[in-house]
Every structure is written in structure tokens, then in C-alpha cells.
Design brief:
- There is one protein chain.
- The chain has a nine-stranded mixed sheet with strand order 2-5-4-3-1-6-9-8-7, sandwiched between helices.
- Helix 4 packs parallel to helix 8.
- By secondary structure, it is α+β, with helices and mostly antiparallel strands.
- It has two domains: 112 residues, L-fuculose-1-phosphate Aldolase (3-Layer(aba) Sandwich); 155 residues, Class II aldolase/adducin N-terminal domain (L-fuculose-1-phosphate Aldolase).
- The longest helix has 21 residues.
- The structure holds Dihydroxyacetone (2HA) and zinc ion (ZN).
- Dihydroxyacetone binds next to loops.
- One of its GO terms (biological process) is pentose catabolic process.
- Keywords: Lyase, Metal-binding.
- This is Rhamnulose-1-phosphate aldolase.
- One of its GO terms (molecular function) is metal ion binding.
Length: 267
């Protein structure tokens, strides 16, 4: 048994917050991350603090009893790795809310986006039993792209696939995009979770991106790939002299790599 700060997942999560800050994607208190612990991981750490119960309505039933590592409200990702006890905690999800069982010292609490995280985990677990992670940040170029591109799932997916050959292999399920919405409330949580029933990535217009996956590395890799494509889009969309990758070429890539692209996007 160790302190929760010694869990591999907590260390990886703290490293990731710093990496994302270095990328320029988590200014000030931007961004939040959560990670569903396995039964094995739950047994690896001791609880030495008084549990704190916080009420929250409409908890998805498939999460009751699960443990979640999550970043704190107001945490600065630049500083998380040196202040894990206050900026990262573990909660146990209950029917009427959740109990803080480790971390969030100095009376801190989980991110304001916690409800979105819970609904997103719930939605992904329904379609993918290996699902574990939700990462949200303010990746720059994909946010820029929401000012110059149509905000439609299929059109945005097609544009991103067309920027880098590997995109269609990395996210054949495409991306979902939400119009601008207030963040932190139930509405954006529900809208995000709805998109996540058929893809792992959701773009929040004029705000940022959210990716899910079976590991922190996996979810972050999706964000890196989407943002790289968006960066190329932003640098070229108004000065192109070639047509870019065609539908036929994308289908050839899928054929070669045995990938099934989301329906209704390529002809
Ligand atoms: O946690 O990024 O969307 C701060 C945010 C809210
Ligand atoms: Zn945000």
C-alpha cells in the first residue's frame, strides 16, 4: 500500500498536466483530466484522510462504486506536478454524489467540469469496456479552426482527415463538434456525452477539445493528432495550390491499414 500520490496513474497524470501546459494548451486554470481506476489500482493505495461527501444529482448508474482520479477546480497545470496533494484527488462515486477519499487538501474540490467528466465516462463505457480517461484542454489550432470552419461533425472530420495521412488511421471514428456553449454545466455535459456515443473526440467551439481513451497517453495522442491537423489546416486553408488528400486516397489508406472510417464522410 502506498500514498495515492505514488500511484503510476497519478504520476502520469501530473506529468501530462505539465506537458499540456508546455504545449500552451492549459493557460492559467484551463483544462481538466480524469482517470477511472481499475480494481487493482484501488487496492494499491491507503486512505488516511477523513472522507468528505459532496452531493451531486443524476449520477450515471454504471459509475456507482467506481473510483476516479480527477484534477481540482482552479488548478494551474503548470504547477500540478509540484502540488499533487492539493490539485489532484481521488473520489468514490456514489448514488447521491461522491466522496473525496484522497487529495484535494486545503479544502479543494474537483474541477467545475466534473459532471461532464462523469457523463463522458459513462457514455464511453457503454460502447467501450476498455475506456478509462477523459482529457480536456484548450489546444490552440483546433480552437482557431472553429472560427473559420463549418461547425458540423462530418465536414470538420473530413477536413482534419485531409490534412495528414495518419489522421484517418488514428481517429477513423471522426470528431464531434459542439456549438459555443457555457462550460461547466449539465447541458454541455449531456451534449458532450451524446457525441461520445459514436466517437472519442469532441471539439468545443471557441473553447477547446476533449478526448477519451483507454489510457492518458491514448487520449493525449488523439488531441495531439487532431491539433496537428488543425495547425496545418490553419496554415494552408487560404493559400492552397493543391487539392490535398482525396476521398479515393483516404479509402486506399483505410484499405491498406484495415481501418473502417466513419460512414457518410467519404464517397
Ligand atoms: O477547468 O478548462 O472548461 C477550466 C476549464 C473549463
Ligand atoms: Zn476549458
Amino acid at each position: 500500500m502506498t500514498k495515492y500520490t505514488e500511484l503510476t496513474a497519478v504520476k502520469e497524470l501530473a506529468d501530462l498536466t505539465y506537458t499540456m501546459w508546455q504545449m500552451g494548451w492549459d493557460e492559467k486554470n484551463g483544462g481538466n483530466i480524469s482517470y477511472l481506476l481499475s480494481e487493482k489500482e484501488v487496492k494499491e493505495f491507503y486512505r488516511d484522510q477523513v472522507p468528505r461527501f459532496i452531493e451531486l444529482k443524476n449520477i450515471p448508474s454504471n459509475l456507482i462504486g467506481r473510483y476516479l482520479i480527477i484534477t481540482a477546480s482552479g488548478s494551474n497545470f503548470r504547477l500540478v506536478k509540484d502540488s499533487i496533494e492539493t490539485t489532484v484527488g481521488v473520489i468514490k462515486i456514489k448514488q447521491e454524489g461522491y466522496t473525496i477519499i484522497a487529495g484535494f487538501e486545503n479544502n479543494n474540490q474537483p474541477t467545475s467540469e466534473i459532471y461532464m467528466h462523469l457523463l463522458s465516462h459513462s457514455a464511453r463505457l457503454e460502447v467501450d469496456p476498455t475506456h478509462r480517461v477523459v482529457v480536456h484542454n484548450h489546444a490552440t489550432e483546433i480552437s482557431e479552426m472553429t472560427f473559420v470552419h463549418e461547425l458540423d461533425d462530418k465536414a470538420l472530420t473530413r477536413s482534419l482527415w485531409g490534412m495528414v495521412t495518419e489522421c484517418i488511421i488514428v481517429f477513423p471514428d471522426g470528431v464531434g463538434v459542439l456549438p459555443w456553449m457555457v462550460c461547466g454545466n449539465e447541458e454541455i455535459g449531456k451534449a458532450t456525452a451524446k457525441k461520445l456515443t459514436n466517437c472519442r473526440i469532441v471539439i468545443w467551439s471557441h473553447h477547446g477539445i476533449l478526448a477519451t481513451g483507454s489510457s492518458l497517453n491514448d487520449a493525449f495522442g488523439l488531441i495531439e493528432t487532431v491539433n496537428k491537423a488543425a495547425k496545418i489546416y490553419m496554415n494552408t486553408f487560404d493559400k492552397r495550390i493543391t487539392k490535398g488528400i482525396t476521398d479515393k486516397q483516404l479509402l486506399d489508406v483505410c484499405d491498406f491499414f484495415g481501418v473502417t472510417p466513419k460512414k457518410g464522410i467519404l464517397n
